[in-house]
Amino acid sequence: MSADLHRDAVVADTHNDLLMAVTARPPRQWASFFRERWLPQLREGGVDLQVLPVFIDDQYRPEGALRQTLRMIECAHTLAEGNQDAVRLCTDGTQIDGALGEGRIALVLALESAPGLDADVELLPTLHRLGVRVASIAHWGRTALADGSGEDATGSRLTTAGVEVVREMERLGMIFDVSHLSASGVEHVLELATRPVMATHSSARALREHHRNLTDDQIRAVAATGGVVCVNFLAAFLADDPADYTVDRLVDHIEHVVSVGGIDHVGLGPDFMREVMNDVTPPCCEGFSYSGVDPLAAVPGLAGPSGLPLVTDALLKHGFADEEIVKIIGGNVLRLFRAELGRPA
């Protein structure tokens, strides 16, 4: 039965911006708000391994980016310390295995675009000491390290500081995330990388032409490093037509990544945005879109982590074998994290 398969497997979500919603509350509420609002959803969805990106809104950039980065990292530590019976903030594979063995959700900290770092690469070891184990270096636009995918037309590669970040992350045992990076930036990273890289939340451009999705060549190259491409659930990255915002369309993207990169190199990077944006965005901003993407549009049933069992159901209906599904919904990410997190060069 699919329910048994989903329950017994390790389910990994490599991109949930819930820290944005939790950090928007007063610090004294961080642990309790997570427990009341997010923990039940994670449990219902069967999530065992949750990557927590640290994303910094434009209102904090540039002057307040590092301060807000540290505040969000502190929020992650606080919610973990306040819910020790249910979660554990992990920095390596041994800690992840320990958390899973105790029935706790393993949390892993990530930086999304790293605006708090800017070009000060010497701060990367500081952030590593605070528990960060995954990082990307651009979002939609330009940073001091690289261009995001919204700037593809520039043909820009990594800056000198960006190259240093790749090397420093490998030295520290951090995993580089190519999601949001420009096409030329992804190419540059793959030229430099000597260890596996991953895409924490990127779908297939062959099925939906958008700069945020990965080309087949990029998918193959990430897989060739030993990394994992985690498919984004955001509806507008799956299809042009809202009529195709379906779980089956999501599985089409998963199937495509499998066909191009192999069954050992695909995972789930849901990027659940609706609840987070409703929590942190004022009513004045309803109808907001970015680069033609409506972040509130969701696949029915997959607006939040509680819907993740639907993905297992759909994979079964599409003919995936049990052992393949176990890899897709978390096994591949767990393997990568066991091998790479905290392993210094």
From TrEMBL:
EC number per UniProt: 3.4.13.19
Keyword Mitochondrion in record: no
UniProt xrefs under InterPro entries: Metal_Hydrolase (IPR032466), Pept_M19 (IPR008257)
Domain of life: Bacteria
Keywords: Dipeptidase, Hydrolase, Protease
Top-tier EC class: hydrolase
One Gene Ontology molecular-function label: dipeptidase activity
Protein name as annotated: Membrane dipeptidase
